[in-house]
Amino acid sequence: MARKDVSGTAGKVSAQPRFHQKAPEIQPYGTVKLLPLELEEPVRLEMTEQLNQLLADTMTLRDLYKKSHWQVAGPTFYQLHLLFDKHFDEQVELVDAIAERIQLLGGVSIAMAPDVAETTQIERPPRGREEVPVQLSRLLDAHQIIIRDCRKLADRAARIGDQGTNDLVVSEVLRSNELQVWFISEHLVNMPLVEAVDTPERVKKTA
Ligand SMILES: [Fe+2]
Description:
- Helix 4 runs antiparallel to helix 5 (about 165-185).
- This protein is mainly α.
- Helices cover about 60% and strands about 0% of the residues.
């Protein structure tokens, strides 16, 4: 069907910008286009679907880090405020790498918040603020889901011949998440801050 020319500039050279343009999408979500990658269509379909799951979960974790960065409270405010933002920045890089891997495989990356919310496996947090141990636990639960995604996806990618996806998932996504888990987990160790706990048993052992 021919499109209606609302600006009256169709086919003419004109300085007038064409506003409010609409048209059907050029590639539906969940499809892959043909590319000379020596990877069969079913492989690229499966990989892009699994990468989109990883992408939705990574975008959710990225946003959970920014929420935690803004809403953190208490004596560890400053260090956690900075750490959460560092991890946020690293997750931003991962989001871009995963999304672009989906596009270069000929697929369509999930992008908008409502679509991410419908797809992610990570539990939705409340809008309000939570205590630090709860924030940290939420972040670790989210990391665990992503690490599970990564192990499954990396294994499958290697098995069906998509070495590029395997490399991205292992070298970038998995390793970054493992490192962040370490940094967050160490904040959940119950350590005395000022006075060491020297119970009689411990004193005896070190004597
Ligand atoms: Fe900030």
